[in-house]
Amino acid sequence: MRIGFRQLFGIVLCSSAVTGIVQADDLLPPVTDADVERVKRDLAQPTDAQIERAIRGLHQPTEREIAATPAPSTPKLDALPKPATPADVDLRTITKGFEPAVKQALAAGAAMSQTPSLLVFVSFSMPAKTLARLVDQAARSGATLVLRGLTESSLKQTVLRVQQLIGSRKVAFQIDPQSFERFAVDRTPTFVLVRAGAQPVSCGDAQCFRNDAYVSVSGDVSLDYALEFMQRQAPGFNGEAGHFLRGLRG
């Protein structure tokens, strides 16, 4: 009996739900022609005559009023605050301290056919003690220190570093990336001893030296050690190496 009662109860619930929906739809009022016309009037667009009347009703400025209106002024850039900048470094004053060394390097290049040349290829990434030792030995021997390029891509920074490094000593310094290629220098320090009377020859788009025109050695060693090593390994350069050794030893 309980089972039959539950089934009958379920049917009654479904019938009530359907009956409720039908009654709700019957309560919606029908849309008449008058309702449609009223909606059209509410959404009607203004005519051209109405727009023209609205424009005439707006106030139009006269020429006098336009002339009296102040024009926007352009900003005065000169009056804007300027950031404080430190005084620029005087490169002329800095370079004046080692002008004699530059002249010495130029003179050495001009006289390459009569005297041997000793080039010491260095970089600022080398240990400070190694750089300081080579600067001191180059000043006493007459060797030329060669850099590949500028420090931080700045001539000013490079000049400042060189000045701090050499101080008041007379040392020939050159910035010459082509010399690194000319002598196949791929590490620093590298010592290159060029024979007296050596003449450059064409090698592609650059100028090079014959293999028998120079001798080189690389390593973190002193200048006198490098020259003595050249004497032992390349006896044909004994005279050129001795020339710089004598200047180095005073």
From TrEMBL:
Residues 1-24 form the signal peptide. The keyword Signal applies. Residues 59-82 are annotated as: Disordered. Coiled coil: none annotated. It comes from the Bacteria. It holds the Pfam family TrbC_Ftype. The keyword Signal applies. InterPro entries: T4SS_TrbC, T4SS_TrbC_subgr. Keywords: Signal. NCBIfam families: TrbC_Ftype. This is Type-F conjugative transfer system pilin assembly protein TrbC. It comes from Candidatus Methylophosphatis roskildensis. The lineage of its organism: Bacteria, Pseudomonadati, Pseudomonadota, Betaproteobacteria, Nitrosomonadales.
